[in-house]
Amino acid sequence: MLENAPYYHAVGKEIDVFNHAYKNKIPFLLKGPTGTGKSRFVEFMAHQLDKKLITISCHEETSSTDLIGRFIIKGAETVWLDGPLTTAVRDGAIIYLDEVAEARPDVIVAIHSLTDHRRELFIDKLGETVKAHDDFMLVASFNPGYQRGFKELKPSTRQRFIAVSFEYPESQIEIEILVKETKIDHDTAKKLVAIGNKIRNLTELGLTETVSTRLLVNAAKIIHSGHPKRASVHVAVVEPLTDDLQTLVALKDLCDLMI
Ligand SMILES: Nc1ncnc2c1ncn2[C@@H]1O[C@H](COP(=O)(O)OP(=O)(O)OP(=O)(O)O)[C@@H](O)[C@H]1O
Ligand SMILES: [Mg+2]
């Protein structure tokens, strides 16, 4: 293993699957709710494979021009500037399109020829087709859970990828993540994970998304740095979940009993 690897604890077979996808030049799609380790996993894999990672956080304004490149004016000349996708395609980096479903439709069009057997990028502004470097890999994430502003990926896009679902880890693994990530004691980590699981099971709350590992990590961090435990859970776990007053009170009471 290389030095300074990002810490990532596998929750299933995702490391093997990613390695096989990479070897076979098949793009990789991570599905799952917020805070389940998707970005961390991609950082970890890029480090393991010793490849440069270029991450793009897609949003509704993200266009193919942002990814592929544009002409810019430099003095009296216009010069072409490769965008991050073109750079990755030429140099053989791993590109991670975070929340790819949010991007404008022309982004999806642009990646189609890259994500099938052609592995090439068409740069319409240059009239040039770039063959992907042998080491190039496209990785994307999308969160199928959003209820509002929910965007789907077309089957013709989805079916180009090897896809893995990321979920909340089982208790033993999540406890270990909290301990390793924040140096908190095992007993407190165990209680935080119990709180997480308890709230996750309260499906009647109708939360858009429930307690993520990220929230538990944040609680563990501020407890470890000296903030009182109950107050930490209130601000790091409960408040980020909801704005509904009744739910806030109920969840805080519940957590107070568990930490
Ligand atoms: N399997 C894991 N191993 C190590 N750390 C993890 C793992 N899962 C979650 N974490 C912790 O949770 C935090 C959030 O993870 P990450 O940023 O990768 O989530 P994400 O799935 O990319 O979320 P989003 O969809 O919001 O981008 C990490 O910073 C890390 O502390
Ligand atoms: Mg992420």
TrEMBL record:
Residues annotated as signal peptide: none
Boundaries of every ATPase dynein-related AAA domain copy: 28-161
InterPro entries: ATPase_dyneun-rel_AAA, CbbQ/NirQ/NorQ/GpvN, CbbQ_C, ClpA/B, P-loop_NTPase
Alphabetically ordered keywords of this record: ATP-binding, Nucleotide-binding
GO molecular function: ATP binding; ATP hydrolysis activity
ATP-binding as UniProt keyword: yes
Protein name: Nitric oxide reductase NorQ protein
